[in-house]
Write a structure and sequence with these properties.
The complex is a heterodimer of chains A (about 280) and B (about 375). By secondary structure, chain A is an all-alpha fold. Chain A is built from twelve helices and no strands. In chain A, helix 2 packs across helix 10, helix 10 packs antiparallel against helix 11 and helix 11 crosses helix 12. Chain B has about 375 residues and is an all-alpha fold. Among the domains of chain B are: about 190 residues, Orthogonal Bundle (MetI-like fold), CATH 1.10.3720.10; about 50 residues. Chain B has a two-stranded antiparallel sheet. In chain B, helix 4 runs antiparallel to helix 12. Classes of the chains: A mainly alpha (about 280), B mainly alpha (about 375). Chains A and B meet through helix 1, helix 2, helix 3, helix 4 and helix 5 of A and helix 2, helix 4, helix 5, helix 6 and helix 10 of B.
């Protein structure tokens, strides 16, 4: 009895550790390759540890990607904040000020987060060109705010649904109107909702590629994802550089995940609609 | 009329609607308006010069070409690639995710650590993942050299460069296959109606399925000549590496979903089953798995719509202009923005939208309904 139980334990831990190793293999590959000098990198010795630490890759990658990382920061901060604020107010309306047809409108909004963006890409491309926003960071900010609205609204709507209606009713009886209730009752307890939404939008927009490659390629305003894909796509490169670049591109979202993992997972689960 | 009166009475309610209005208008234009434009463009011969409205209206010609035109074989293979990708990707994520969730639920130590490791790929972009896997899938280095760490011969599978195709079928036979799928679905529906004692729908579906069967047996499907020559498609083994990378990235998501589901099962329920003499295996089979079914369904829909839209990962691992690993998401991009065939690109985009809508719309509608019942 006891023996079979400890055997089971061993089996569980062995399986888990086996998969941990598998899951860490790509991380191992990025880190070791980025720390090798181009001469040290060969296909045959891909798995070996660097014989000599070569930090120059990071200096080179930083010089190469700095403008793109700045572009990404200039994109991600306003887009995240604006879509979070709009999502919060939308979620407040759709959970506490429901009106006939509001649920159907909400579903119509939600559809926008599932569509393949290819199906709106050509008109979007033309629209931005006509507005003179093609290739600009502000154009990309607008795009991310609009197509981020469904998910930010969804997360806040589900979050606010848990505020007891009595609290809102009490506010109404005290004579508070739409804005006062939001300011005094809803907004002060919104912090966890904002954390979830901001993390989610930050991760999504930082990692986004399709809009970025279509709307900024060759303009000098490319975010980091586009620059990295250009480097990794060119076959003749030294692999230490794309690997160091990949680490840099991954770092912001990875740090957010490690520090605020709990909220990251909440956003993840909210993405499957049912809150 | 009464609805409007009620609204007018309530100034705050009106404010609420006005506040929501900008978002509604933006989404109406940027989602529905743009979809309509893409749809219209796909019915013209517009090539990006001038206004699509001034181009010639050619009806469904672009779609016809995509599905039956000799030159558009690449689109058809991209559809087949997506289909197999979706199948294996979902199967892989579900089984790994469930395995991780069950193992982690066994009251183990360092639970947080294991969760952290299995979920970290989710925080990365497909571009980062793609860059790394591009290197890992190199035929001479990377994964193929893993056996050499144990003094074995390296593997020789070519991964992305592989040109082998298995599970082949003839595109000419497509009407027949669609007929068979239709037949099976109809018979299943009929059986379900019959079980629910809805006799009339049961009889109607049964009659249609008999008609389909007769049509199939009489060779009606073979008479639909969609192509002039036979054309084989199948599962390109070059997709395997991409599927592995995608599973590596998304399995943790399934683990999180399942873990949330398993933890949602009340402990009293498990305890009661234990008192009744059920062992752990039976508790999973009889209590936990049935409760995980709704989670599995919504996860399949989320994963399914991700895989039908897949773009970035393949763009970086295999390159955007790789016929063997092409998917509609990339083909649409290349056709439109590199080939200037905007009308045809629009048609591919609409096909993608329809594929996604088929799984998403029923899901959204059922969510809406279940919320009304609450």
């Amino acid at each position: 009895m006891n023996k079979s139980k400890s055997f089971r334990r061993i089996l569980i831990y062995t399986t888990l550790v086996f998969f941990v190793v598998i899951f860490l293999i790509p991380a191992y590959m990025v880190i070791t390759t980025s720390l090798k000098s181009p001469i040290q990198i060969s296909l045959k010795t891909a798995w070996d540890l660097p014989t000599q630490w070569f930090f120059q890759s990071f200096v080179d990658a930083w010089l190469k990607f700095k403008p793109n990382i700045i572009n990404s920061i200039r994109l991600v901060i306003p887009a995240t904040l604006i879509s979070a604020v709009m999502g919060s107010i939308n979620g407040y309306v759709l959970s506490k000020w429901k009106f006939p047809g509001s649920n159907i409108l909400f579903m119509l909004m939600l559809f926008g987060m599932f569509i393949p963006y290819q199906s709106i890409l050509i008109p979007l491309f033309r629209f931005l060109k006509n507005m003179g926003l093609y290739g600009s960071i502000s154009g990309l900010v607008i795009v991310h705010v609009i197509y981020g609205l469904p998910i930010t609204t969804l997360i806040f709507r589900n979050y606010y649904a848990e505020i007891p209606t009595e609290m809102i009713e009490a506010g109404k009886i005290d004579g508070a109107g739409f804005f006062k209730i939001y300011k005094d009752i809803v907004f002060p307890i919104s912090l966890p909702g904002f954390v979830v939404v901001i993390i989610w939008q930050f991760t999504q927009i930082w990692n986004e590629f399709l809009f970025a490659v279509t709307l900024t390629s060759g303009t000098g305003n490319e975010p980091i994802t586009v620059a990295l894909s250009n480097l990794a796509g060119g076959r003749a490169v030294n692999w230490n550089l794309p690997m160091a670049g990949a680490l840099m591109a991954a770092l912001p979202t990875l740090v957010v995940y490690l520090v605020l993992g709990k909220y990251f997972i909440r956003g993840l689960l909210a993405g499957s609609v049912k809150g | 009329m009464s609805i409007f009166k009620k609204i007018r009475k309530n100034k705050d309610q009106l404010t609420a609607i006005l506040i929501l209005l900008p978002s509604l208008i933006l989404l109406a234009i940027f989602v529905y308006g743009f979809i309509f434009q893409t749809g219209y463009q796909s019915l013209t011969d517009w090539t990006g010069v001038g206004e699509p409205g001034n181009s010639e209206f050619i009806g469904l010609q672009n779609y016809k070409k995509l599905f039956t035109g000799l030159l558009d074989i690449r689109f058809r293979q991209s559809l087949v690639n997506t289909l197999f990708f979706t199948l294996f990707f979902i199967a892989g994520c579900l089984s790994l995710g469930l395995l991780f969730a069950i193992l982690i639920d066994q009251g183990i130590r360092f639970e947080g650590f294991f969760r952290l490791i299995f979920l970290y790929p989710m925080s990365l972009s497909f571009i980062v993942t793609g860059t790394v896997w591009n290197w890992l899938l190199n035929p001479v280095g990377g994964v193929n050299r893993l056996p050499t760490l144990f003094n074995k011969e390296p593997w020789s599978f070519k991964w992305i460069a592989s040109r082998t195709q298995i599970l082949q079928f003839d595109w000419l036979q497509l009407p027949k296959y669609i007929g068979i799928i239709l037949l099976v679905t109809l018979i299943y529906l009929s059986y379900r109606y019959w079980k629910q004692e809805k006799n009339i729908p049961a009889i109607i579906t049964l009659v249609i399925s008999i008609a389909t069967l007769i049509w199939l047996l009489s060779g009606g499907a073979n008479k639909i000549q969609i192509l002039k020559v036979s054309e084989t498609h199948g599962f390109n083994l070059a997709m395997i590496g991409i599927i592995l990378a995608a599973i590596w990235q998304m399995a943790g998501y399934m683990m999180a979903m399942y873990l949330a589901g398993i933890r949602g099962v009340p402990e009293e329920l498990r305890e009661a089953a234990r008192v009744d003499g059920a062992n752990e295996l039976q508790i999973y089979a009889r209590i936990i798995f049935p409760m995980l079914m709704p989670i599995t369904l919504s996860a399949m829909i989320v994963l399914g719509h991700i895989s039908l839209k897949i773009f970035d990962l393949i763009y970086v691992i295999a390159g955007p202009d790789n016929a063997t690993t092409d998917v509609p998401g990339i083909l649409m991009f290349m056709t439109s923005f590199r080939g200037n065939q905007f009308a045809k690109g629009g048609a591919i985009a609409i096909v993608m939208l329809i594929m996604v809508a088929v799984i998403i719309v029923p899901y959204l509608v059922s969510t809406l309904k279940s919320e009304h019942e609450l």
